[in-house]
């Protein structure tokens, strides 16, 4: 036979059990909703990253045909001028460029590879301009390990020729300098060409050029990277690029 205290506890148990069950169900419901919310947020972030990666890859692919067109145009010019020796060398360099091009599939590459890639284009231009062209490139060994989106230097060099040096009469100079300060890499490209158009017009004529660089730098480095262009009257044009110095990038995602 139950005692009075036991009977009281039993009554309390019958009363409290539904309340405790309801609270437990409510907690589980809220917890489940929270889990769903986190899962949806994670999926959204993954989709955004995939979209960013897709856009980044698309921008990389857009820049390459521009280089191909300009290189072939130089080779065609040499052929029309019947400069056979220079033409053969240009074709050799161009084949090296194509070999490198199809190996470049990552969102960022070591700076040393970007420099070597650009040197193919510069060598073709040297064949075209001859002794008129002087190119200076300065980059410390430790900085060559830095990672950079592909075709950044090459595109800026292309713009220097297309919008400045090709219109220059007499000696043409191209000065390329890399430097490192407080974990920030800096690229300066100066040419003594004649740029008749202002910056906006120049970028518009460059197609996917400088604007493409800005967008790719922003996609990978956000606001930590920048590109500036300055036309110096009667002197030439200067382009400056800054980006974070990294030597172990996460190549699987664009942040």
Automatic annotation (TrEMBL):
Keyword RNA-binding tagged: no
Keywords: Kinase, Membrane, Transferase, Transmembrane, Transmembrane helix
Entry annotated with the keyword Membrane: yes
Coiled coil residues, start to end: none
Signal peptide feature range: none
Gene Ontology molecular function terms on file: kinase activity
Transmembrane segments: 6-31
Record Pfam families: His_kinase (PF06580)
InterPro entries on file: Bact_2-comp_sensor_kinase (IPR050640), HATPase_C_sf (IPR036890), Sig_transdc_His_kin_internal (IPR010559)
Span of domain Signal transduction histidine kinase internal region: 57-133
Superkingdom, natural source: Bacteria
UniProt name for this protein: Sensor histidine kinase YesM
